[in-house]
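Record type: monomer structure entry
Structure origin: computed from sequence
Chain ID: A
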Amino acid sequence: MTTDPLSWLVSLEGVPSGLAAARDGIDVVLRDRGLRRTSPETTGESLLRGAHASATLEGSTSTLAQVRAGEGDAIAQDALRVSTELLSLVPTLGRSPLQALARLHALASATSLPAEQRGRPRDAESAGRLRDLADLITSSAGSPGLLVAAVVHADLATAAPFASHNGLVARAAERLVLVARGVDEKSLVVPEAGHLALREAYESNLRGYATGGDAGVHSWLLYATEAYAAAAEASPLRRPAEG
């Protein structure tokens, strides 16, 4: 029997209760309107808001209104391109996580990198990190979906295995895991907006994840539970479409 590589994280102080509270918050938002009564337009709005928030974290200065109108800057366009195909990659993540991650990067970098660099790791070490992450996604079926999503996000963002757009890829992969693991099957919460709302803590905890050992991982997971609560509040089910 294969041991779940993330099982040790579930017992860290504050993590089980934080994950449970975050999941409850997400479930409350989804139940308030009823998943069966939501429309594809609501999912589209969530993805749009997520693309804008992720682009902003990556350095975009475009407003949500500009992104909605298709007038955003290059970074916003990169994020939108990823969001357009994101949900179609859910089956791919289950079959071949490495292929799904490569596709996310190829989409993000479609207009800025030569074809031979799109979806490909920077070097042999980065290729190894990506293989390890893909194996982790496959072998962590027993861990809570929120936990897996948070770890996938942080690993991609801090390892930076691609030549560019690692932040966009990391946040898109997080949303993809949340959908694939059944946390938010219709992708109605906005995890990227949760991170943007907590930007200082987000960036600080990513640095801690990269350099702080087990303590940094623990702090990141505690932060992530707060970010997921903010993600639920940013859902179009909670806040109607803005300009």
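Annotation 1: The chain has a mean pLDDT of 94.
Annotation 2: The radius of gyration is 17 Å.
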